[in-house]
Amino acid sequence: MATPTPTLTVRATSTPRRVSEEHEEAPAPKRVRRTSSDGPPVTSEPIMILVGEQEDKFFVHAHLLEASSEYFLKALSIKKRRVF
Q1: What global pTM score does this model have?
Q2: In this predicted model, what pLDDT tens digit does every residue of 9-61 receive, in sequence order?
Q3: CA–CA separation, 37 vs 35, rounded Å?
Q4: What DSSP element (H or E) covers 76?
Q5: Comparing C-alpha atoms, which of 11, 2, 4, 7 is closest to residue 58?
Q6: Which of 2, 3, 7, 4 is nearest to 75 (CA)?
Q7: Contact call for residues 42 and 61 (beta carbons, < 8 A)
Q8: Those residues with Cβ within 8 angstroms of residue 61's Cβ, 6 or more apart along the chain or in another chain
Q9: How many CB atoms lie within 10 A of CB 76?
Q10: Chain-centre distance of CA 46, in angstroms?
Q11: Does residue 36 contact residue 42 with C-beta atoms inside 8 Å?
């Protein structure tokens, strides 16, 4: 019997935008690129993350989420403590 993939739902919230009389160009977002040798080995299970109202699915290894975000570190540690 296959083990179900854990799911974590993240809902996007709208953020207030600054109103300006002049049109300002926003800087291009920076892409973070890392090689597999830059970090720890990816040995954790994939986590399905549902994003937005349409719940777009993304699969990310739990270890990478925990290493890059305090939010996911807390959310996944709470999920691990649950007894099913």
Answers
A1: 0.45
A2: 666 555 555 555 566 677 777 777 777 677 666 678 888 989 999 999 999 88
A3: 5
A4: helix 70-81
A5: 7
A6: 7
A7: yes
A8: 42, 44, 45, 46, 47
A9: 19
A10: 12
A11: yes
Residue among 9, 69, 75, 64 nearest 42 (CA): 64
b vs e for 13-45, b when ≥16 Cβ sit within 10 Å of the residue's Cβ?
eeeeeeeeeeeeeeeeeeeeeeeeeeeeeeebe
Q: For residue 21, what are its two tokens? A: 């009389």
Residues counted in the chain: 84
Two structure tokens written together for 32: 């973070």
